[in-house]
Amino acid sequence: MKLCRTLVIGSLPLAMAACTATPSTPTATGPAYTCCEAADINRDYQPGQTLTVHWIVVPGKLSTGSPAHEVELNARLSGPYATVSDLKTASGQDPAGGSTFTADPIRPSGQTGEQPVSSILIPLAAAPGYYNLITSVTEAPASHGGASVIHVVPKP
After folding, report:
1. Which residues contact 6 (CB under 8 A, 6 or more apart)?
2. What is the DSSP string of 36-99?
3. Per-residue pLDDT of the chain (156 residues; tens, 9 = 90+)
4. Considering the entire predicted model, what is its pTM?
5. Contact between residue 151 and residue 130 where contact means Cβ atoms under 8 Å apart
6. Among 7, 61, 66, 123, which has the highest number of CB atoms less than 10 A from its own CB?
7. Does residue 154 contact residue 125 with C-beta atoms inside 8 Å?
């Protein structure tokens, strides 16, 4: 009886290794997403305006009957920072006394021709300065993202 338990327990790590040692190769790849069109970030914004993030879609192939390609696109704006240098040295940390404005998450379907857009309303009370636009693409089992500098100027 003891020998049987030892054999079963002793072979468990081998059985587990055999199950995880050979990753499966995906048979289908959905589209990839990145942020964003230059016109979205290469301009000044004023409080009360909406920052629109037009996600760039790189087409992929989904075979018929393949599982749904689950992706979530997120965008948020945090600041203000007095200078671009202050923003960059903050290394992703929100400024003390600052604000964060967040777009609703987007879950694109992956259909051909789909052009996802995230919208962030810059409140009327937003202080002028430099804001960190942080974008992320999450798809199991990983995520990736980026950041851009957005300049908010006072209303005339």
Report:
1. none
2. --HHHHSSEE-TT-EEEEE-EEE--B--TTPPP---EEEEEEEEEESSHHHHHHTTTPPPTT-E
3. 444 433 333 433 333 333 333 333 333 577 889 999 999 999 999 999 999 999 999 887 654 444 556 899 999 999 999 999 999 888 767 777 789 999 999 999 888 889 999 999 999 999 999 999 999 999 878 889 999 999 999 988
4. 0.75
5. yes
6. 66
7. no
| Count, residues in the chain | 156
Residue written as token pair 């857009």: 117
What six digits make up the tokens of 42? 């290469």
Residue type, 62: L
Residue identified by tokens 């202050």 is: 86
